[in-house]
Design goal:
With about 300 residues, this protein is an alpha/beta fold. About 30% of the residues lie in helices and about 25% in strands. The chain has a single domain, classed as 3-Layer(aba) Sandwich (Rossmann fold). Strand 7 and strand 8 form a beta hairpin. The two termini are about 35 Å apart.
Length: about 300
């Protein structure tokens, strides 16, 4: 049975509007996600990962604009305004880096659950049972104790689990998670992914991360450098056999690989976003990178 295409994204151009100019932040990033699939969007800080995810939610900062985008959700153009608001928190869920920051500080956990239940149209008589069930599934042995607390009374890990529990009230089709395992050790990271897979087996999951170990747990990976696509394919292939010099540099920067730095090697900028730091630059690298494709694998590099 063919899986439903949940998200088809082309960001177009995302730019910051400055006083006398504009600064391009993301250019032409393309993503496709089917139901049940997970994709890791990888890159250094400032590579455009979060802007890409926020563009799906139409949540770009006020001074950031977007032109030429194409965002299709379940075969139709993603709506804006009130129609999009109706989808968020029900069919489309955003899990931020800090659970505490996403919770309403003026409401108890129980009050926030009630809001979520109303939005997802859960019958009143079923709310108590469903709340207890979800909180137990995310690891709270005493749900009633958690429900009475405010966000500031929760540890970082507890707040993140509450955020995931709130997402589980409905039946989301698309989950956007922005650095959800930041600061967690390997065991906690694996537990997070196990929990997400258990609670949302059929949801498409876009995971924003700079952590290669997190990307390994996903089905697909897309690598960004300075807001542009460098490489995409199955996570196992991209991480196990990287084609693009930038991806190779990311892998080389892992502690296990000796923390190899990628210094700035030349002042002149090229059309490739990695041009100034790439040790493999050739004459063709001054041209716009061509897309080399083999099956599901794509790489934008003139060295291929």
């Amino acid at each position: 049975m063919e899986r439903e295409l949940i998200l088809k994204l082309n960001t177009g151009t995302i730019y910051a509007q400055l006083a006398k100019s504009r600064k391009i932040l993301v250019q032409g990033v393309e993503i496709m996600l089917h139901e049940g699939e997970s994709l890791a969007l990888i890159g250094e800080t400032g590579s455009g990962k979060t802007m890409t995810a926020r563009s799906v939610m139409r949540l770009l900062p006020s001074n950031v604009k977007q032109e030429g985008e194409r965002i299709c959700y379940r075969g139709e153009e993603l709506p804006k305004g009130k129609k999009l608001t109706g989808l968020t928190g029900t069919e489309i869920v955003y899990i931020p880096q800090s659970g505490a920051d996403s919770l309403n500080p003026s409401l108890t956990v129980q009050e926030q659950f009630q809001d979520g239940m109303r939005k997802n149209r859960i019958p009143y008589l079923k709310r108590r049972l469903k709340t207890d069930q979800i909180l137990k599934e995310v690891g709270f042995s005493d749900p009633q104790k958690i429900l009475s607390k405010y966000a500031f009374e929760l540890s970082g890990g507890m707040a993140q689990r509450v955020t995931i529990a709130l997402a589980a009230i409905g039946e989301p089709k698309l989950i956007l998670a922005d650095e959800p395992t930041n600061g967690l050790d390997k065991k906690a990271t694996e537990e997070f992914f196990s929990l997400i897979s258990h609670l949302f087996p059929n949801a498409a999951k876009l995971i924003i991360t700079h952590d290669i170990s997190v990307a390994r747990l996903c089905d697909w990976a897309a690598v960004l450098c300075k807001g542009r696509m460098c490489e995409t394919g199955s996570a196992a292939e991209v991480i196990g056999n990287p084609w693009h010099p930038y991806t190779q540099a990311l892998i080389g920067a892992l502690v296990a690989n000796g923390l190899q730095e990628t210094p700035v090697l030349r002042e002149q900028a090229g059309n490739c976003p990695f041009y100034q730091r790439c040790p493999k630059v050739g004459e063709r690298c001054k041209e716009e990178p061509a897309c080399v494709q083999s099956g599901d694998r794509k790489c934008w590099c003139n060295r291929q």
